[in-house]
Design a protein that fits this description.
single chain, 222 residues, alpha+beta, Glutaredoxin, five-stranded mixed sheet, 5 strands, globular, disordered N terminus
Length: 222
């Protein structure tokens, strides 16, 4: 006797199809959320800015000194006060190409979720884009007015006010909009920056606590 053919369970098949569709949809949502979390947003542009690396570049010397800074970082402030003038002189003398990389790794030191590191890096990019000749003056102003860690930092209105004071008022709207707010965090992650200031010479990351590495840096700016 021939065996009876089993009938397909269309209800079970339908449920399986729905589950697969839901899983695919959820997978798409997860991918989208991950992309949103890592999306750097629009890249800053301008004569001073490398839109791929985020570097603000000065000079055209044979050797390149790159400095990664966070404007909430007090040691970055001390580093700039100690070596900034010497680095700028080395640029003027044609000895080095100097790259400043504004990044954001200290948002967790901003109270109330104010994300001062990200907002100040954004402001720096805005000024570098809108008023490149005022960028160094603005950087100096950010360090002069640096807030203490574990505070809310300066407001966007204050950041725009500092820009106005140095003659970079054209950057006010960009600062208020947070146009490049994600850029500093994304570049810190991309370059695996764990602390600031981080210094590189010709692409080699230096350990500034190591006397040999420190000498490589000071030899170029002395």
């Amino acid at each position: 006797m021939a065996q009876a053919q089993s009938k397909p369970n269309w209800f079970a098949i339908g449920i399986s199809i729905v589950v697969v569709v839901v899983l695919v949809a959820l997978g798409g949502v997860v991918v989208w959320m991950n992309n949103q979390a890592t999306d750097a947003g629009p890249a800053p542009k301008g004569e001073l800015i490398n839109s791929e690396t985020g570097a603000l570049t000065y000079g055209d010397g044979e050797d390149t000194v790159a400095v990664y800074i966070d404007f909430m970082c007090p040691i970055c402030n001390q580093f700039e006060q100690t070596y900034g003038e010497a680095m700028q002189k080395a640029v003027t003398d044609g000895e080095i190409t100097l790259e400043y990389h504004p990044i954001a790794i200290l948002d967790h030191y901003s109270t109330g979720g104010s994300e001062y590191s990200s907002r100040s890096a954004n402001a720096m990019f805005c000024v570098a884009e809108k008023a490149p000749d005022k960028a160094l003056d603005y950087m100096e102003s950010l360090f002069t007015n640096q807030p203490a860690e574990n505070t809310a930092g300066r407001t966007d209105e204050e950041l725009a006010g500092y820009a106005e004071e140095v003659g970079a008022g054209a950057a006010a709207d960009c600062i208020a909009d947070g146009t490049y707010k994600k850029w500093g965090t994304a570049q810190a992650s991309k370059n695996d920056i764990k602390g600031t200031p981080t210094v590189e010479v010709n692409g080699e990351r230096l350990d500034m606590s190591n006397s040999t590495d420190f000498q490589k840096f000071t030899d170029l700016i002395s």
